[in-house]
Write a structure and sequence with these properties.
The chain is of the alpha/beta class. The chain is built from 11 helices and 8 strands. Bound molecules: 2-phosphoglycolic acid.
């Protein structure tokens, strides 16, 4: 497996000047330090053009935050995976809990979007994670199992997918899962992937942890077994913080 993958999910934040400053700051860091992690930024769709023109030919990858399952058509406001690929994206986040909540996306929708992403030549970062209620009632692993089973497309290539475990109660709340809880879930996910793809192929799938990752807790979380990177929201909006999470 390659090094850790550190993905920044800007959500619905930013402006042209903000994006320019943030990306130029990150590119400065990438040029001056030797980086072992792979970095990707996922700005809002309207800022993709700005970000892609700044990152062209650099080691900073770019992803969308969502894509439609169809290639084209009458879907006002949506963006196809083909178009994301065409403008230069390498990744797309699918099934983020905010999409599942705000837009009622189901595992079947996430599966279809992820399949479209793979078909277009993008690497989907497929998000899964239990709610606080599900954790309290002891259903975490059964929820995760259903999400992994139902959200991953049938014929996906382990070289070309990334999973992100994001406990919903830890997103944007400042609460993080303990390293022991993260280890339990990541080991469980790895076991599901081993069963499905075989151990050798499953090893190639990076499993990111997400939910209030910041410089102060990143080293501890990234050291957990089967944590292959981080999906970062709030802390990805500051050059120093986002960089500090991955550059170690
Ligand atoms: P957060 O968001 O780091 O602000 O908790 C993570 C995410 O939603 O991907």
């Amino acid at each position: 497996m390659a090094g850790k993958l550190i993905a920044g999910n800007w959500k619905m934040n930013g402006s042209v000047s903000f994006a320019t400053e943030l990306v130029e700051g990150l590119l400065g860091k990438i040029n001056e330090d030797s980086v072992s992690a792979d970095f990707v930024v996922c700005p809002p769709a309207a800022l993709l053009g700005t970000v892609l023109s700044l990152t062209k030919g650099t080691d900073l990858a770019v992803g969308g935050q969502d894509c439609h399952a169809n290639v084209s058509g009458a879907h006002t406001g949506d963006t196809s995976a083909e178009l994301l690929k065409d403008i230069g994206c390498g990744y797309v986040i699918t099934g983020h809990s905010e999409r599942r909540t705000d837009h009622g996306e189901t595992n079947a929708d996430v599966n279809a979007k992820s399949a479209a992403a793979i078909k277009a030549g993008l690497t989907p970062i497929i998000c899964i994670g239990e709610t606080e209620e599900e954790r309290v009632s002891g259903d975490t692993l059964s929820v995760i199992k259903a999400q992994v089973t139902e959200s991953l497309p049938g014929d996906c290539d382990p070289n070309n997918i990334v999973l992100a475990y994001e406990p919903v109660w830890a997103i944007g709340t400042g609460k993080t899962a303990t390293p022991a809880d993260v280890a339990d879930v990541h080991n469980f996910i790895r076991g599901l992937l081993n069963d499905r793809f075989g151990e050798d192929a499953a090893k190639k799938i990076r499993i990111l942890y997400g939910g209030s990752v910041k410089p102060a807790n990143a080293a501890e979380l990234l050291a957990v077994s089967n944590v292959d990177g981080a999906l970062v929201g709030g802390a990805s909006l500051k050059v120093e913080d986002f960089w500090a999470i991955g550059a170690r």
